[in-house]
Amino acid sequence: MPLVVIAVLAFAVGFDLAGGPARSERRLVTRYMTAWRHGDFAAMYGLLDARSQAGLSAASLRNAYVAAASTATVISFANGRVSQPHGNVISVPILVRTRIFGTLRATLEVTFTGSGSGARVSYGTELLFPGLRAGQG
Predict the structure, then answer these.
(1) 109 with 89: CB under 8 angstroms?
(2) pLDDT of 13-68, one tens digit each?
(3) Is the pLDDT of residue 126 over 50?
(4) Which of 48, 50, 80, 137 is least buried, going by the fewest C-beta atoms within 10 A?
């Protein structure tokens, strides 16, 4: 019986050290959000999946985010902790301060492809601002 207890404890410690399920995917989305907050569009572009990069240049990505922020009169934004994935989507709570609309609270839904260290963000215009739907922006 003590051997079973040791095995269970070892598994639990290893699981905790590994970060639990979907650690890589959550880290990917956290890196994407951090790059966005810092205006590092090159880093954001580097985190996109191949299909997204094939349909969008780095300059176009930057221009889309800058235009969306300008339209929404964004002063600043902060994000909360990324959720566990639901399928291939990770939710991120966002707090956006704007000049015209005040402070907005919303949830950004970040879609990704792949898994583990191969996971990449799947770009769509819904990523430009919380509440936008695919094709808007």
Answers:
(1) yes
(2) 344 334 555 799 999 999 999 999 999 999 999 999 999 999 999 999 999 999 99
(3) yes
(4) 50
94: β partners:
79, 106
Distances from the Cα of 132 to the Cα of 20, 51, 106, 109, 125, angstroms: 31, 21, 10, 10, 7
The superfamily in CATH containing domain 22-127 is NTF2-like; domain 1 (3.10.450.100)
Q: Residue 130, exposed/middle/buried by CB under 10 A (0-12, 13-18, 19+)?
A: buried
As a whole number of Å, the end-to-end CA separation of the chain is 61
Q: How is the chain split into domains, by residue range?
A: 22-127
Q: Which strand ranges, in their side-by-side order, compose the sheet holding 120-121? A: 74-79, 89-98, 102-113, 120-121
Give the 3-state secondary structure of residue 110: strand
123's tokens: 């770009």
